[in-house]
Amino acid sequence: MISDKHRATDCGCLGRRAFLSDLGLGFTGLALGAMLWDDGRGLARADELPGQTHHPPRARSVVWIFLSGGYSHLETFDPKPALNKYAGLTFDKTPLENPVNSPLHKKRFRSVPAQEVNERDVYPIIYPMQVGWKPHGQSGIEITDWWPHLARCVDDLCFVRNMWTTDNDHAAENQIHTGRHRLDEPQPSVGAWCSYGLGTVNENLPKYVVLGGPTRSDTRQSIDAYYLGPQFGGVPLELDPANPLPFGRRPAEQAADQQQREYALIDRLNRLAAVEYPRDQELAARIRAYELAYRMQASVPEAIDFATESQATRALYGLDQDATRLAGQRLLAARRMVERGVRFVQVFPSTYGVWDSHRQLQANHARLCATVDLPVAGFLQDLKQRGLMDDVTVVFCTEFGRTPGLEQRGGGKDGRDHHPNGFTIWLAGAGIKRGYVHGATDELGYHALGEGHYVTDLHATVLHLLGLDNRRLEIPGRKRLEIDHGRVIDDILA
User: Fold this and answer.
1) What's the chain's average pLDDT?
2) How far apart are alpha carbons 123 and 165 in whole angstroms?
3) What would the mean pLDDT of 205-230 be, rounded to a whole number?
4) Interior CA angle at 145 toward 144 and 147, to 5°?
């Protein structure tokens, strides 16, 4: 007898599939369920299925390097002589336009806390540069003296100096990855959209790998897929070849053939259920997770095992120094991942919030730059010597910049506060201009000039390089807002 739930459903096709399942189609039904999932039905329009690019790609993979806490754009990649010239004066005592009076200040600003906290970025006393700077390379691009190794790579970099965002609190760590303020409905992260839009190159590794993150439980949004389905979210990996997958290691008391039989039984049961409920994304994701987890038990340890790397390569990444070892390991693992076909690698070379220099900016940034400068430069050099700069796009970013004014809360004397109104990121590699600066902030480094670029412009650019049109990545029943789409930063494309 056919159950009531199979007599009438919201979708006739579901009722028919369940009916056929009940009549015992067996492996034919299993194949149908798998095919329906693989061809993407229910996820997108039939002419725009996952795994099909919208135009010829310029890049095969992306490595997204994120520094948590908000590095100072002023003391890194956008030095401002005017800060020294007018140090100690208030904004209204200089011949420059007072940036607080600019209409951009209200236009690009949105926060959650009380008004007195909302306006903490208006500290009026100009705080001088805390480090020197000079031009580097044939391009003559100025960066500060805290980046001696990266300075030698400057002709391979493309700086975007007019980024802006809206959240002035550390929820901006999620915002730069999802494009949404924390008052809004959460959205899939940029890595999840890449994973959703592209097919895999290596069936034995995740399409989207996360190294060193998410930095905390409340930054899970930065790697999440939400309504795209959990199979498109980031997969965090540990850099321990003996246990790279948290909760993914075969128990010592279980033989490999026993595990294989166990997984085969679980897979068969899951697929029987999938015939009856072909639109159940969690079930489909579980099937793929079991399959991938089984394959990854062999492939992931090899991918993060540095035993085959030469001593010269280890030194290039700083693995022989205590200060640079952690960042170097994560970046070397990122290179090994993209070599093996991983589409999107999200690297957190520093721990949560450490770049947040409300106090002692000079000491804090000097120390932190020294932990990532050598490994990042080594990573770029390694990509270049292996010919991967033509295949991989590198993004280096943070959640916001730091204020031109001295932070005075609590009697502060040597730090800068959060600053979403204008900051700098850089890109390198496949499809990107080299030795180039796009956009600018004003003379004090306060506002991104012109229209500037909201964070989803960066997303649109990365997706474009991978062959995806951000505006065509739509999900039925999930209307995205204009701000979610962003616009490609055409000027930085090679």
Assistant:
1) 85
2) 19
3) 93
4) 85
